[in-house]
Write a structure and sequence with these properties.
Layout: E1 2-5, E2 9-14, E3 17-22, H1 33-48, E4 53-57, E5 62-64, H2 69-74, H3 79-94, E6 98-103, E7 106-108, H4 111-117, E8 120-123, E9 128-130, H5 144-151, H6 153-162, E10 166-167, H7 168-174, E11 179-180, H8 184-195, H9 200-213, H10 216-219, H11 221-233, H12 235-247
Parallel strand pairs: 3-4, 4-6, 5-7, 6-8, 7-9, 8-11
Antiparallel strand pairs: 1-2, 2-3, 9-10
Helix pairs in contact: 1-3, 3-4, 3-11, 4-5, 5-6
Length: 255
């Protein structure tokens, strides 16, 4: 199996399947600028090689935990970050491959964007899923268009308002997870057997059609990115992010 190591991800190829592994263990696979750029680069390479399946995965402890608060607290927010992240999720949703997310650990905040954009989500009972943004005065502006497509409005709204993590079993009931079990590797392998036979041309045509059916992924990009910008430039929110990054304090613990 061919392996390409980036700074924040690992990319492996096996025949017409690629394995994209988030690799920032020091931050529980939080999303930073470099991860966004490297994921775009990895997808470009996958398209060049005409793979028909991309498997997204993290570690046993954390699939992806959303925005890197340490980076956000150190740098002024750049609106291009929101655009690049939203368009990364759009590519996962629209490009000529089947995207599978394999989840063993926790998924929080922006990490849910990768889940919501995926065609198939496979999880183990150890996985958990949460939209935690409102705890910090934020909200999942860029995640919601993708998640709502998966779950419908009220279920996405409930997850946003409550901020509480849900188990893989509950996530399956909500429509976030498509299949789960104690051996996710075997579940994924069974999916590979059929998906490996699909042509990238057929996948592309189908996903283009599906995107037209749910056109609000495209139409909501401007509003989602603008809301994201306002959220991360708000001084109160930036203080809350900085306090959590430096001291581990939630906003209500710092009053």
């Amino acid at each position: 199996m061919e392996l390409i190591n980036y700074q924040t991800i690992k990319l492996q190829f096996r025949e017409n399947i690629s394995f994209l592994t988030f690799n920032r263990p020091e931050s529980q696979n939080a999303i930073n600028r470099q991860m966004i750029d490297e994921c775009h680069t990895a997808i470009d390479l996958c398209l060049e090689r005409a793979v028909n399946v991309i498997l997204l995965r993290g570690s046993q402890e954390a699939f992806c935990t959303g925005a890197d608060f340490a980076e956000l607290s150190e740098h002024q927010y750049d609106n291009s970050e929101g655009v690049r992240l939203y368009r990364l999720w759009r590519r996962i949703t629209e490009e000529a491959f089947v995207a599978i997310s394999q989840v063993q650990g926790k998924v929080t905040a922006g990490g849910m964007g990768f889940i919501a954009a995926s065609d198939i989500v496979v999880a183990e009972p150890t996985a958990s899923f949460a939209l935690s943004e409102l705890l910090f005065g934020l909200f999942p502006a860029c995640v919601l268009p993708f998640l709502t497509r998966r779950t419908g409005f009220q279920k996405a709204h409930y997850l946003t308002i409550t901020t509480k993590p849900v188990s893989a079993e509950v996530a399956k009931e909500l429509g976030i997870v498509d299949d789960y079990g104690t051996n996710s590797d075997e579940i994924v392998r069974r999916h590979f057997l059929r998906l490996g036979r699909l042509s990238t041309k057929a996948i592309k045509k189908y996903k283009q059609y599906a995107s037209k059916m749910y056109g609000y992924i495209d139409s909501w990009e401007t509003a989602a990115v603008e809301a994201n910008r306002e959220i991360f430039l708000d001084p109160d929110n930036r203080r809350a992010i900085a306090n959590y990054a430096s001291k581990g304090l939630f906003p209500w613990e710092n009053r």
